[in-house]
Structures are given as structure tokens and as C-alpha cells.
Amino acid sequence: MDKDKFIEMVGKVAIEYYSEYNILPSLVVSQAILESGWGVKHIENNIFGIKAGPSWPGKVALRRTTEWDGTRYVVKVDKFRAYDSMEDSIKDYLKLIGGSKRYEKVKKAKDYKEAARLIYEAGYATDPKYVDKLINIIESNKLYEYDKRAEPISSWAVEAWEWGKSEGITDGRKPKTYATREQVVTMLYRIVKKITNFK
């Protein structure tokens, strides 16, 4: 998978679940790039380097890892979560970060710089250069553009969007993404059917 495709794959899932977890897509993509070397050095589809603690019920992979112990880098063998696909890895990462009180501040970050700092301060990584590395990846690849695509519904469209959800015109997901012709026709069909009782 080339770099552009890797970015798009991770970014697409991050945008899809932004409204549920409030994790900036730029942070998600930059961590995936950094932790997996653009998806090349993943651990059994684990592209975030998430370790497998006692509560993890899924598959596990043992790997050597380099950690910063506060004074120096040390190499050790550790357990990591293993997944059937990279998409599963992204979804699990979002669930982990989005559902943990430990990372509560990350969900409230105003921008990617703050998000990078807060996730480091919450203890996600031990590398003292982690924040700078994430910011550099985001800026050099313009990943902040993904954050714009994940912004909440415009204030002027809230009423219409809520109506569309309540009437079954839309499923209420991904308000900022482009619609396919199939989706547009389906929404028009539902509107016409509702107005005219078309059968």
C-alpha cells in the first residue's frame, strides 16, 4: 500500500467515527504513520502499537520493542494486540482512546498541536520527541485537511439534518462526507415517498 492510500484508508475511518469519539483525524493518521512506518512495520495489523493488557480478549503477538525508561532507551519483549485487518486496528484505537478517561483531554483538543501534546502527556508514548514527530508528520502531509472534513454540521444545517434523521431520510452518519449518486437518489426517493405517500 503506497503512502497516499495508507493516509486515505486511516483518514476515512477516523472521519467516519469522529462524531462518536471526537478524536481529530490528523492525530489518528499521524500516529498510524509513526507507529507502523506507513503501515509497513505493523504488528499483526496493529498499526498503533497498542499493547495487550490483561483485559484484552483478542489475539496477541509478541514483539521486541524499544522503550524510553526516563533516562535511556531499553529493548524488551512485550505483548501487542493483533487484528484481522488494519481497519479493525483503527476502530479499536478509536474505541480505546475515545472511551478512556485517561485520554479525556485529547477529545477536547482545539487543534492537532494540542492533541499531539495531550496524548503524549496522557502516557500514550514514552519517546520524548513524540509530540514533535507527530506534528511534523501532520504538517508535512497536510493531514489537518482531514480535520476540516470531520467538522460538525454547520449551524445553519442542524435543524434540517436533525429532521432528516428523525424522518429516516438519512442515517445521520458522516454529515461532511460526499454522497454517492446512489445515496442521493435514495434520499430523494425517501423524501418524495414521504411527501406524496408514493408506493
Automatic annotation (TrEMBL):
Asked if the Swiss-Prot or TrEMBL record annotates the protein with the keyword Hydrolase, the reply is yes
- InterPro entries linked: Glycosyl_Hydrolase_73 (IPR051056), MGlyc_endo_b_GlcNAc-like_dom (IPR002901)
- A Pfam family for this UniProt protein? Glucosaminidase
Instruction: State the Gene Ontology terms under molecular function.
Output: amidase activity
Q: Where is the Mannosyl-glycoprotein endo-beta-N-acetylglucosamidase-like domain?
A: 1-147
Q: Which domain of life does the UniProt lineage start with?
A: Bacteria
Q: What keywords does the record list, in alphabetical order?
A: Hydrolase
Report TM segments: none
Q: Which protein are we looking at?
A: Mannosyl-glycoprotein endo-beta-N-acetylglucosamidase-like domain-containing protein
The organism's lineage is: Bacteria, Bacillati, Bacillota, Tissierellia, Tissierellales
